[in-house]
Fold:
Amino acid sequence: MGGSILGNRVLRKEDPKFLTVGGKYVDDLLDESLLTGALHVTYARSTVAHGKILSIDTSDAASMPGIVAVFTGANLGLTPQPATFNPMVARSALAMDKVRYVGEPIVAIISETREQGEDAAEMVIVDYDILEALTDLEQALTSSTHIYESCGSNAVFDTTALGMPDNTGDAFFEGCEVVVKQRVLNQRVAPCPLEVRGAAVAWVDGRLYQWLSTQHAQGARDSIAAANGLDASQVRVITPDVGGGFGAKIGSYPEEQLLGRLSKEVGMPLRWRETRSESMMALGHGRAQVQYLTIGGTRDGHVTAYQMHVLQDCGAWFDMGAILAPFMTRPMSSGVYAIPKIECRTTSVITNTTPVVAYRGAGRPEATAAIERAMDLFAAEIGMDAAEVRRKNLIPKFDEPHTTVIGQTYDVGDYEVALDKALNAANYEELRAEQARRRSSGDVKQLGIGVSVYVEITGGVPPMGETAKIEITDDGRAIVYTGTSPHGQGHATAWSMLTSEQTGIPMENVELVWGDTDLVPSGGGTMGSRSLQQGGVAVFKVAGQVVDKAKAIAARLLEANEEDIVLDRDRGAFHVAGTPAVAKTWAELAVAAKADGGLKHEEMHSVASATFPFGAHVSVVEVDTETGKVSLIKQIACDDAGKVLNPLLLDGQIHGGVAQGAAQALLEEVRYDADGNPVTSNLADYAFISAAEMPDIQVVHMETPTFVNPLGVKGIGESGTIGSTPAVQSAVIDALSHLGVRHIDMPCTPMRVWEALHGRK
Amino acid sequence: MIPAPFDYKRAGSAAEAISIVSQYGDDAKFLAGGHSLLPLMKLRLAQPAVLVDIARVNDLSYIRDAGDHIAIGALTRHTELEHSSLLQQHVPLLSHAASHVGDPQVRHRGTLGGSIAHADPASDLPATTLALGATYVAQGPNGTREIAATDFYKGFLESALAADEMLTEVRVPKMDGAGWSFQKFNRRAQDWAIVGVAAWRKGSNAGVALVNMGSTPVLATSVNNAISQGSSVEDAARLASNEAEPQDDMNASADYRRHLASVLVRRALEQSSC
Ligand SMILES: Cc1cc2nc3c(=O)[nH]c(=O)nc-3n(C[C@H](O)[C@H](O)[C@H](O)COP(=O)(O)OP(=O)(O)OC[C@H]3O[C@@H](n4cnc5c(N)ncnc54)[C@H](O)[C@@H]3O)c2cc1C
Structure:
């Protein structure tokens, strides 16, 4: 072996399978003997956004062909369960007294085939007393109709109630030469994993086995156990291949938690898979904030005060979405800027819509979008270039932790270099010149250039660490057990590289095990861009420990001192320094270690803090000023995630991130009609981005290692989303700024752009 | 997302298909490419009791030179229209419009006959064949009749076809070197048009039809008349905004649609002039 494999563009070892025979997802578990004869579960769902349930008649449904059983919450004796962070918000897994969004499950139907279940679901008759549907966050905030009556308000979580200071209003901006205010929408989007939710369950010797499409098997095991009144040891969650999650498959959902109970009732294994339409209504949504921003500063471009009131739409349940604004958006409100005064209050509000959960970036994209929008508005007001105003306010380079005025500490940062790299790669001056040409010639297609600089939090959610276990087999292969949970990221490749680097065992002889809670009982899953910096580092450390253990055994076999044993990584064999001819292979050492329980090591790697990747994006758009159509023609992405383990995997994360980020800026929005019916519940109406709308993406390299972990790595899973959204939105507005346009809410659809240009609504 | 139960019959010929459909009346539906019908069935917005599959009636898949017009079998796929050199030579507007339908998968399944019979105002090919002055051929239990495109579209998803009548052929006059343009305004490449325009011009004659500007595909008669009376392109195009009664929907208000129609008609007429 030449030098280190780390840092190389190593092809993904999981791809041959995915590209040929395909993955094996929950729905593909047809030869699983524990699921033989499994029946199918279908949930009949609310067709009403807000209403009292007067009666549920399941008799017609129960008499349909192939129907084995039909359950309501009352049949099952379900009771309302309180939400973790606000016990006044409580609901049962099947709605009983009240429905709170279209798509909420009410009745569980067990059938011989899925199709029969769907037919029977149509025959369930629910009588409602229809209540006012509050799908608009601000309307819900002031309405006297309370979606959870016992809360006495639809505002269920507020930073002021947590003891954080309230905003002080306009007084905060005294002394500012310039003050700009704007209401900004960070719209509700749907995560849209290609694989929708699905699960299968069987009771095996009194234990519940649940196959689940999840990002975090261990967390799902605990929540499923709790929901079923079981001890965690009585539940085994097994994760097959997972076709995307984007945050929405972190937790477990009522439809999933109920399966064990239903299986027990009918005495058969069960399968459940939602349809795409159900997924669009009942898999959690993301973002969904309204932000009231005020920014103030001096005419020469220094921002001196920034105030934000974030209204977070929780949807109809107090899920993860409710806590993102206070704990992810607020701490990042300062962004990359040295702003001397910041106030940020957040208020989370229940509405009659699909519950909001974590979605790629989860609270940080919203913080970035807010401050970047505010910077642009400030720049426009004082007539300064968007890049220049940013440069003036950036936190200078730091390699010791830096704490912003809002109280968040960042590890390392070099923001100006990121900005310069992105501007250079974009040929910023040339773009501005081309823009000026088009402006003066009155071109129908105007050019817009958007700049964003961001910093975000990765690896910031508990558990702050990860376990890894490595076992060497008798034939010298390494089995790596990880608590992370790949669903597209490429952990099999990355963790194999790390193991191979330490042990010299070739990558193809490294096997990765994850997502089965009997094999990997503790783990934090894959979310919040934590995997490499916690799980990967754990694997790297444990692989080193296994090498040390192997050296001890080799020393014994070769009758030498441990310190004299060296590992020849090219051969994957140990020998005494200076006498390579007499060597012990990994296989030999594993066999020798058998009597002592085998050659293996397990360890929890704890981290002291999160890491704070940063970067800068430049977007170039063309806007057709007659029709309002936007074409994103180029995206420059400089995302600094610390040391790069594999540039191929890094690029993949950036490309996907930019796709979802650009999609939020231009295309995607979950919408409801006045009665609270979703009008975007399929992929024809919901404008999920496609390859044809994707720009040329130029990835610009930058590596600023962190001191937080020995590999110097940070997260990259969400950065592309965080940096791209504000840059693209800003580019659209920039294209029209000479025509007096200062703001357009996302998504910048052709009609919105046209309305902004024509000043009408 | 799962259709209601239905019976499935496969027909080997037009005559067989028509005779099966006549037995069931309104409960039966022809199934061609399935790319309009099956989505409706999956959402349970359509629940036919019987589907009569005509996708394999191969003798209705052709593109032929018939002298003054091109005759196209109803079961011809969009992708065949897109790649036919005969069509590219004589009716390039239709070939080009077909290349804008959905995505490659849709174009390999969807048929010209299905698109026209479905009579969706948002579809590309009904308006395009309308602009071109096409004639449709329908076969029923009692024989065959010709229906002019201008008489065919009766309302939203409603055509002049009787339940037991099958569309068998589309006859499109040759364009004889006319200038043409197809303007499709949509959000994503594979989407239906928010507004679309199919147009041709030759000398003082013009044919302009609008996609998604009302409950049916719309022939922009006032625009066509204005051009033949010598109006400027600008002036003629302005008439397009009043040509129809567009609806508000998620992507566009009626006002915005009217605005788009006049911009796109102007662009289409300009492009057709050269
Ligand atoms: C994702 C997607 C995107 C699409 N995008 C576009 C687009 O951008 N532009 C566009 O124009 N279209 C689009 N379509 C629709 C597509 O072009 C359809 O294929 C076409 O509209 C219908 O043709 P079909 O052969 O699939 O008809 P089917 O779905 O099989 O039938 C449609 C209707 O016509 C009837 N029918 C079919 N053939 C006959 C016949 N010969 N005689 C009598 N009745 C008949 C059927 O009974 C049914 O009622 C899209 C479809 C999808 C799924």
